[in-house]
Amino acid sequence: MENSEAYQSAKKRVEAKMGFYTHLTVYAAVILLLAAINFLSSSSAIWFHWPMLGWGIAVVLHAFAVFVFPGRFAVTEKLIEKEMGRFRTHP
Fold first, then answer.
1. I need a labelling partner for 70 at 20 to 30 A (CA). Which of 12, 21, 46, 54 fits?
2. Closest C-alpha among 9, 27, 11, 10 to residue 63
3. Does pTM top 0.85 for this prediction?
4. What is d(CA 87, CA 15) in angstroms, rounded to the nearest whole number?
5. How far lies 78's CA from each of 57, 72, 74, 75, 88, in Å?
6. pLDDT in tens, 42-62
C-alpha cells in the first residue's frame, strides 16, 4: 500500500511539474508571437510588455506553488482523505 501511495504522490508531483513546464512553454511562445506582431505592425508603440508582465507574474506564482511550496499537495491530500472519510461514515 505504501508503494502505491508513494507512486501516487510522485505521480502528482510530476504532473504538477509538467503542468508548470507546459505553462512556461505556452507563455514563451505567445509572448514571442505578441512581440513579433508588435514590432511588425508598429515598432513605435511597444505594448507587448504589458501582457508579458501580467502573465509573467502568473508564471512566477505557478513556479512558487510547484517548486518552492510543494508541501501544499500533502495538505490537499490530507483534506481530501478527511472529506472522503466523512462521506463514508455519513451516507
1. 54
2. 27
3. no
4. 27
5. 29, 10, 6, 5, 15
6. 889 999 999 999 999 999 999
Total count of domains within the chain: 1
The larger pLDDT score, comparing residue 19 to residue 80, is at 19
What's at 36, amino acid-wise? Answer: A
Contact of 67 with 76, CB cutoff 8 Å: no
Q: Which of the 8 DSSP states describes residue 63? A: H
The pLDDT of residue 39 is above 80:
yes
Locate cell 501544499: which residue? Answer: 72
Contact, 59 vs 24, CB < 8 A? yes
Yes or no: say if 24 and 61 are a contact pair by the CB < 8 Å rule: no
**Is the pLDDT assigned to residue 66 strictly greater than 60?**
yes
Residue with cell 506553488: 65
Higher-pLDDT residue of 50, 71: 50
Give the DSSP letter of residue 42. Answer: -
